[in-house]
Predict the structure.
Amino acid sequence: MARGDKSKYTDKQERKAEHIAESYEQRGVSDHEAERRAWATVNKDDGGGKASGSGRGADTGHPASHRGGAIGGAASAHRSAAERSASAKKAAATRKRNAAHG
């Protein structure tokens, strides 16, 4: 498979890359760089193209997109109710302040 050839990727992998690229573009990343990052992310999560061949659908473990949520939830669980409440109040005040400017 030549470099840049996407024929071995499934439709789902292609949709995933499109969504990731759109997200980067919305944050101001150039089209070319957004696409490069998107395919790099798909490759990291899925281990490359999976369109055909024996064993291509094998589980690749826990990609970064899954670990992040677990880490965040664990960190939140260790905070006291008072700390979470204070954080929520601060966030609400920030949203209110920003809404007045926008």
Summary: Helices lie at 11-26, 31-46, 64-77, 81-101.
